[in-house]
Amino acid sequence: MDMMGPMWMMIAVLAILGGLKWVLRRVNWWVYETQLGDKRHALPPGDLGWPFIGNMWSFLRAFRSNDPDSFIGSFVSRFGHTGIYKAFMFGNPSVIVTMPETCKRVLNDDDAFKPGWPTSTVELIGKKSFIGISYDEHKRLRHLTAASINGHEALSVYIPYIEENVVSTLEKWSEMGEMEFLTHLRMLTFRIIMFIFLSSESQEVMAALEKEYTDLNHGVRSMAINVPGFAYYKALKARKKLVAVFQSVVNERRNERKTKKWLKKEDMLDALMEVKDEKGETLQDEEIIDIMLMYLNAGHESSAHTTMWAIIFLQQHPHFLQKAKAEQERIVKERSTTKKGLTLMEIREMKYLSKVIDETLRLVTFSLTVFREALTDVSINGYLIPKGWKILVWFRSIHLNPQIYPNPKEFNPSRWDDYTAKASTFLPFGAGSRLCPGNDLAKLEIAIFLHHFLLNYELDRVNPESRVRYLPHTRPADNCLARIKRRNTFSTQER
């Protein structure tokens, strides 16, 4: 009898805990689903997780493990291959879409969906950046800035500067010994994008700004918790510093333009300050600063990570490495003796290298998802996406789908031979009207670096088995600690 009391007490505690868990698991259901009335029965399968945090713990747990795709895998195993699931992500009731057809609908239907990025992302990148403005504003700003970023003339102008920096930097790195390859790649790509936008090459300023961008980027897809110790808090401080720097640059440039001795710098800032819409109106300072902040962040992070992984993958597969290298040697040998350096035409002749870059973009999937918000109740595949709910277009599930890409986790540039990706099956830069506006510039920068690296250098990793981290972007835990070794086997001056 003496044992019965504690046993019943334990049973009671377990029952209370079980009941509490049952209640907590239904809080989000009660708050967000019951208000839909009978329409809730048309919601996609899934669950909204715990109060406030929703499914974020399982998301973070998966992406901090060796199997990030276990997050979506858990939805598939519990609810089947529906390709559309309800969840609670980044503080909002959401729908995750993982199949090309549904992704195509969400990304291209501007009447039904608008950008739905988390509060943290919009606050950090800027309310006047492309991710924070309406469809009409986006269309206006994209039209005004597109030629300055991805236009044929602009790309041709950027090539000599990019190439000069790549050549001199690789030579410098080859004499450094051990270095964090990714960290130094990011500094290089940041220097390039800074020059394109601001004609700035101050090492001290750029080092400081790149550090702030690192803090900013870690908070872009975090929970909007503005408390010391959280990524969002640190990222907000970084944004304030970046905005202050850019505002001072804009003010200085405006003052320079008022003087008789002003000389046009031919950089992106000049272009943004001069551009006028059909009404003759120029961009406001807030628009200029948020556009610069957005481009500078995306323009160096994605290029650096993709370049690093392309080199790692190629060296892991000597057959593909030799094919890529042979193409670059051929391009140089066929060059006229009067030409010095790469041309845009030569870069567009790098057909195999383009496949290497595309395969790297697919396999790494730098941006694992983009966010939209339903402007009205929308029906997709018989399921309801309620007005105001967020939609996460899950790129990883598409790029790593074995039905679309056989052996999807295998690096194989040759899979692109005589193959054209069907609509919404290859989305490294998104799709629709909000396709990443800097995609051509990013691929140009990657191609120029790979051209010179393949001809004359190799990567000697210190920890080739280094653990891979997936947040905020896929990278080796040691940031690819390595030595850059010069081969001395080919010169770009040879023919």
CATH topology: Cytochrome p450
The low-confidence parts are none
Secondary-structure arrangement, i.e. CATH architecture: Orthogonal Bundle
The largest β sheet comes out as: 5 strands, mixed
Overall pLDDT confidence = 87
Summarize the amount of helix as a percent range: 40-55%
Describe the global form: globular
Tally of individual domains: 1
Q: Report the oligomer.
A: single chain
Describe this structure in words.
By secondary structure, the chain is α+β, with helices and mostly antiparallel strands. The chain has a single domain (21-486), classed as Cytochrome p450, CATH 1.10.630.10. Helices cover 52% and strands 10% of the residues. The protein has a five-stranded mixed β-sheet with strand order 1-2-8-5-3. Strands 4-12-9 form a three-stranded antiparallel β-sheet. Strands 6-7 form a two-stranded antiparallel ribbon. The mean pLDDT is 87. Keywords: Heme, Iron, Membrane, Metal-binding, Monooxygenase, Oxidoreductase, Transmembrane, Transmembrane helix. Its main location: membrane. One of its GO terms (biological process) is brassinosteroid homeostasis. It is a single-pass membrane protein. This is Ent-kaurenoic acid oxidase.
What is the topology?
Elements lengths: L3 H21 L2 H7 L22 H8 L6 H10 L4 E6 L2 E6 L2 H9 L4 E3 L3 H7 L9 H16 L1 H22 L5 E2 H18 L4 H17 L11 H27 L10 H7 L10 H32 L1 H16 L10 H5 L2 H14 L4 E6 L3 E3 L2 E3 L4 E5 H5 L39 H18 E5 L6 E2 L5 E2 L4 E6 L9
Parallel strand pairs: 2-8
Antiparallel strand pairs: 1-2, 3-5, 4-12, 5-8, 6-7, 9-12, 10-11
GO molecular function: ent-kaurenoic acid monooxygenase activity; heme binding; iron ion binding
Protein name: Ent-kaurenoic acid oxidase
Cofactor: heme
